[in-house]
Amino acid sequence: MLEEIKVRIESAVPGCQLEIIPNGSPSGQHSLLLDPPHALEVAKFLRDDPELRLDYCSNVTGVDWLDTEQSPGHLEAVYHLYSMEKKHGPIVLRMRTENRSDKVHLPSVTPIWRSAEFQEREIFDLYGIIFDGHPDLRRIMMWDEFEDHPMRKDYVEPDDYEYEPTPHDHVLTRAKEHVERNPQ
Amino acid sequence: MTSRLTTPVYEEMPEDISDRIDQGELLEIALGPHHPSTHGVFRMDVVLDGERVVKLKPVFGYLHRNHEKIAESASYLASMPYTDRLDYICSLSNNWAYALAVEKLAGLQVPERAEYIRVITAELTRLVNHSATIGFLTQEMGASGTPLMYAFREREKILDLFESLTGSRMMCNYMRFGGCRVELPSGWLEQTKKIVEEFPRFLDEYERLLTGNEIFMARSQGVGVLKKNLAINAGITGPMLRASGVNYDIRKVDKYGIYDRFDFKIPLGEHGDVYDRYMIRMLEMRESLKILNQALRDIPAGPIMDPKAKIRGFRPKPGESYGRIESPKGELGFFLISDGSPNPYRYRVRPPSLINLTVLEDMCRGYSVPDTIVIFGTVDIVLGEVDR
Which residues in B lie closer than 8 A to residue A53 (C-beta atoms)? Predict the structure, then answer.
């Protein structure tokens, strides 16, 4: 199924690089890795193609892959597509960033599927992927002044946690450390 | 159905309104976050032209606790009670969605009796949710007290069933990967049958009160219309989508669990307005009763847990899965990535409440503030799930 779709996309969108990412679990939901420069065209093809008609983008989410010895780390955006007209799916799409720095860009699919609007904002907020072409890219869950991206695997929470009224045990230890570091 | 009242609608948003705000022509105010009609802590930043809404921006995050991060640092099973707290009206549906995703990930088979119990509890949850939603909706229209109390009277009976089955009225924490936690208590099925038999009386009474009510019709017909194409494109699911006339119900499409064994229909709306969204929920309750009657009749004896399912040392093979169910609010999905460790590497909740709010501005533009509250009420959100 996914091989067929891959061949059809390659003939419809010339020059695009696709790769099938196998899934080892019994769910058998393999995914298709897109190259970001052609992603918007591919998305448009998937939505409008009369045989596929993937008109419904259900789930959009981010994944953080840390650096390993074999390969450098990257951030990933995962899309689960279904068809409300043909009632099939899911087709899983992925896009990967080059690295895990603060300035990583991916194209937004919100112009194709509006259901991605809030979900891409959430990825921007919690993972720090900047979606080019998103109509309203702001933080959604955290407040606007917040600086880090909490869902990243190497996120360290800031040392301004709320104290308990009567600190004890490890909270007391942390409270003491905090006061030592930040004398009033 | 009779011809409907129409209200003028701003088709497109005015280009630039910041000048008109500066000159005091338009009024910019925050609706919420602390108000009973926002169903929790939720804020809408609205720009008003007199009484009419010109612009509406929802503001989220007041209840954000990063549920997903917490789940990634806990074992698979440890997140099960936490899923109750997402949509705290429908905890059993949430349990099922999570269990389904993990079962897909690990390849577990659910025994027949457990599947029946899941269907029965999930459909009871749908009754609870829809009756509460309609109750709150009428409250927001100004029908102070009576309809809400009628709805809560019925909800109460079902919560008693949940309590006798799971030990908790709202935070049920009942399902496990590969089955259910405890066997049904004796007499539970008979009690459920009795409640299911009596439920249509409540629906008839409720419909006599509301469906033909002139005030109710004037407030809801032609208000907050959601067009079919926009609903599909914006990923709207659940009763809201079907009220706009799209035949898409995951119980029929995916046939997860054993839903292919039951005979039930999918009610569809025609206009996509507030009245249709109310009516769809009423009709869905009647269809749920049909499913319940069949499930209660056919439930077999047998085990309720997959013998292969492990409680301790549960480590699915590396891989990923996306499992989704038709929760009372729409498509509730869980996306899991396993790296072979006892904790999920990635745990994602696809919240229907959040995504159904995508079109809130489109539905409310051009209506007055009281209509906005009513339209917002028919989206049917729970902030525990929106903010996670």
Answer: none
pLDDT given at position A165: 67
pLDDT in tens, B360-370: 988 888 888 88
Shared domain check, A88 and A172: no
Q: Does A86 touch chain B (CB under 8 A)?
A: no
**In this structure, what DSSP letter does residue B208 have?**
H
Query: What's CA A24's distance to the chain center, in Å?
Result: 20
Chain segment B1-53, per-residue pLDDT in tens: 444 544 444 445 556 777 777 777 788 888 878 877 777 788 888 988 888 88
Residue type, B75: S
The SS3 call for residue B351 is coil
CA distances from B248 to A44, A88, A115, B170, B290 (A): 22, 11, 16, 28, 19
Distance CA A93, CA A19 (A): 10
Instruction: Convert the pLDDT of each residue in B304-346 to its tens digit.
Output: 888 888 778 888 889 999 999 999 999 999 999 998 889 999 9
Q: Which of A25, A63, A151 sits opposite B316 (nearest CB)?
A: A25
Phi first, then psi: what are they for B363, rounded to 5°?
-75, -35
Average pLDDT over residues B80-94: 91
Amino acid B352: pLDDT: 92
Specify if B264 maps to a domain: yes
Q: CB B235 to CB A113 under 8 A?
A: yes
Write out the residue range of the structural domain in which residue A87 sits. 2-153
Residue from B57, B62, B228, B233 whose CB has the most chain A CBs within 10 Å, to mutate: B233
Q: Best mutation site among B41, B69, B331 for testing chain A: the one with the most A CBs within 10 Å?
A: B69
Question: A75 — contact with chain B (CB < 8 Å)?
Answer: no
Q: Does A30 touch chain B (CB under 8 A)?
A: no
**Closest chain B residue by Cα to residue A154:** B69
Choose the mutation target among A58, A80, A153 for the interface with B, i.e. most B CBs under 10 Å: A58
Task: Count structural domains, chain B.
Answer: 2
Same domain? For A107 and A165 the reply is: no
Total domains present in chain A: 2
Side-by-side strand order, sheet with B319-327: B319-327, B330-338, B346-350
> What percentage of chain B has pLDDT greater than the value 70?
96
User: 10-residue block means of pLDDT along chain A (184 residues)?
Assistant: 84 84 84 88 88 89 86 89 87 88 88 90 91 88 87 81 69 80 74
- Residue A113 to residue B233, Cβ atoms within 8 A: yes
**Same domain for A49 and A110:** yes
Residue A26 to residue B248, Cβ atoms within 8 A: no
**Interface size, chain A vs chain B, as Cβ–Cβ contacts under 8 Å:** 110
Chain A nearest C-alpha distance from B346 (Å): 7
Among B157, B247, B223, which residue's Cα sits nearest to residue B365? Answer: B223
Q: Model ipTM?
A: 0.86
| Omega cis (within 30) before A90 | yes
CB pair distance less than 8 Å for A117 and B387: no
CATH number at residue A120: 3.30.460.80
Q: Which of B233, B253, B318 sits opposite A24 (nearest CB)?
A: B318
Domain shared by B55 and B85, yes or no: no
pLDDT computed for residue B107 by the predictor: 86
Q: Label the pairing between strands A129-132 and B27-31.
A: unpaired
User: Does B73 lie in the same domain as B33?
Assistant: no
